[in-house]
Amino acid sequence: MTKSGTEDFTKSSDRRPRSGSEISPRVPLHFTVHKPGCHFESCCGICNLFPGVLLIAFCQVLVGSVLLTLILTHGKQYDKIHNTPDSQIMSLGTGAMLSGVTGAGFLLIIVALTENCRAMLIYLLVAMFVLMGIVSLAVAKIGRSCIRFKDASKIKDEQHRLVNLACVSGLFTFFGAVLYFFSFVVVFSFYHFRYVRRAILMHEAECE
User: Fold this and answer.
1) pLDDT tens digits along 92-104
2) Distance between CA atoms of residues 108 and 101, nearest Å
3) In 10 A of CB 49, how many CB atoms?
4) Cβ atoms 130, 101 nearer than 8 A
5) What is the pTM for the complete model shown?
């Protein structure tokens, strides 16, 4: 009688952990690697872009400040190249865009180090406006250069050289816009998978 009672107790104790494992909800594979509270771990490598995001921020600050210094010190020559010596619209527009790039870089450094989700959203909005401004500036430079190329047979060699420099400046500005778009995509991917996607999966896990 005692032996059978012991066997029944053993069987019931063996069944309890099994039933508990069956009742407990399954933990998504995302959270087995993507642990909340960790700063550098990730589920798919996206959050490992954190050093890349910091590198992008420092490059934006460095390149933006250097080019802005060149524009401030050589603004007259820059406007002479783009044939805007009176209005100075090209130097002012380029300076404004470079100021935006530098300011956005500083904001990205602060956001990345503090890991503030809302501030990251503000940076993305600022970066989007800066990107649109750079693209518009590049299109304006290239368009004005193409218009000046129509009169290439009538202008002097010195003016022809300035037109070529203006066109090259527009192409470099467009190339900078492409690089800035690539950095924007990297930062947006980091923001989405680090904050938005994790919040969605945590909410789904709680609902289950």
Assistant:
1) 999 999 999 999 9
2) 10
3) 19
4) yes
5) 0.70
